[in-house]
Amino acid sequence: MVKQMIDRKGPLKGKGETLAQWHREAGEKLAAVHRAMDALAQSVREVKGRRWNLNVYKLRTKAHQLRWRETGIGRRHSLWERIEPELSLLAPGLAQWYRETEEMAQILNHKEQVARYELKTITRLLEGRPRAGRGQNWNYDS
Fold first, then answer.
1. What's the Rg (C-alpha) of the chain?
2. Cα(100)–Cα(117) distance, rounded to whole angstroms?
3. Bridge partners (DSSP) listed for residue 69
4. Which of 32, 45, 111, 117 has its CA 20 to 30 A from that of 63?
5. Confidence at 4, pLDDT banded by 50, 70, 90
6. How far is CA 98 from CA 51, 60, 69, in A?
7. DSSP 3-state assignment of 91?
8. φ and ψ at 75, to 5 degrees?
9. What is the pLDDT of residues 117-129, one digit of tens each?
């Protein structure tokens, strides 16, 4: 007679360590994005005679976003749509650098949002609180 051993945990075996590792990696990824945001903002501050700064704003707990701000008196927030037409007054190389910096700022803003969402999702899984979205039913007893 042959006895077959069944692993009752199946694919969930070791789930806690896998989630913990994923959580650590997601936290490291978010921290790396924040460091890249800080570095990009610093690179703008190193431009002599600049008219705009790129600042890292903390919107809420752990959320960061890169935003443009005018230099000088008033230091108002400035949307890219208002900055871009003024680039024609700058040297072509500097104007292109600002365009590339804006593109990188937008990419980093989106990467930050995605990394933060990933970390929040993993945290919920670790806490055992899956959240149902619209149209999803987490009640498996029905």
1. 23
2. 26
3. 53, 77
4. 45
5. low
6. 11, 27, 13
7. coil
8. 40, 55
9. 999 999 999 888 5
